[in-house]
Prior knowledge:
Blueprint: E1 11-16, H1 22-31, E2 44-46, E3 52-57, H2 62-68, E4 73-77, H3 78-84, E5 89-93, E6 99-106, E7 121-124, H4 127-136, E8 142-145, E9 161-166, H5 170-174, E10 177-186, E11 188-192, H6 194-198, H7 200-221, E12 222-230, H8 234-240, E13 248-251, E14 257-265, H9 269-279, E15 282-288
Parallel strand pairs: 1-3, 1-4, 7-8, 7-9
Antiparallel strand pairs: 2-3, 4-11, 5-11, 6-9, 6-10, 12-14, 12-15, 13-14
Helix pairs in contact: 8-9
The structure holds adenosine-5'-triphosphate and magnesium ion (MG).
Amino acid sequence: MKxxxxxxxxxxxxxxxxxxxxxxxxxxxxxIGLDFESYGQRLFSRCRNFPLSILYVRxxxxxxxxxxxxxxxxxxxxxxxxxxxxxxxxxEALGYGVCSLVVAVPKDSAFQEPLDLANATIATSYPRSTxxxxxxxxxxxxxVTISGSVEVAPTLGLADAIVDLTSTGSSLILNxxxxxxxxxxxxxxxxxxxAAWQDPKKRxxxxxxxxxxxxxxxxxRFKYLMMxxxxxxxxxxxxxxxxxxxPTIIPLDMPGWVAVHTAIEEEVFWESIEKLRxxxxxxxxxxxxxxxxx
Length: 294
Ligand code: ATP
Ligand code: MG
């Protein structure tokens, strides 16, 4: 059976079939209201309520699929887009799969800066990113490309240093390595084939997806806050919670008191609650937002 992926007006999105990005990617797609089956070993799903087909592939193949226009969209680590050097449109950073591509050396080695590695041997699964990084410094170290367990290469005597992805740094520490410098900060990104992004019909559907993704991501960043306060405290309260624009203020059935509703960023949440109490707010209620249409 030939799957008709092209020519039916449906957008095609490639995502990682099984790996570190898969769970969050499927979670994101379901949270923006897409209805599709994602269980089992399927190769692709068609959304029932959106003109979108989802292809499940190896993450390494996603940059090329998007670059060639085999699919219109992909969700993949920025590290792979950078490595493949393929021209795609990065539409949105998605906030998961956060990691960095770093140069790391044995803990006790004398290497202090990247140029100390000009004549060294470097093991990596990211040869192009590595070559490009050192070329910009005017250096051309020997690069050994290996596909897995890069961090053991120095212990095995295979290389003097490595270039690898790290998120917490724990696997570097575990292998007695220390990071020297960061080549690239990465996270999962939504990318588009440039022609798909320029095509008015596809663009319309992509824009709908983007609006939903942004709404869900914004909602995760914010909490909805409700409180009661004396009118006299309002100026102080507004200073603590500038809100998205101005807070909503509702008179209470109690002279001199109002209810204040606003959205507040998760990051400053606890700190702000303390300040609100000091300013005179009481009965502070918090709720999570589901979608936030900015
Ligand atoms: P596939 O079988 O699809 O080729 P893979 O084994 O090559 O998968 P994963 O290990 O699942 O890839 O990693 C997928 C992506 O997750 C990476 O390209 C990177 O963007 C991101 N990532 C986040 N944290 C880390 C980390 N600590 N180490 C490696 N990748 C990470
Ligand atoms: Mg891979």
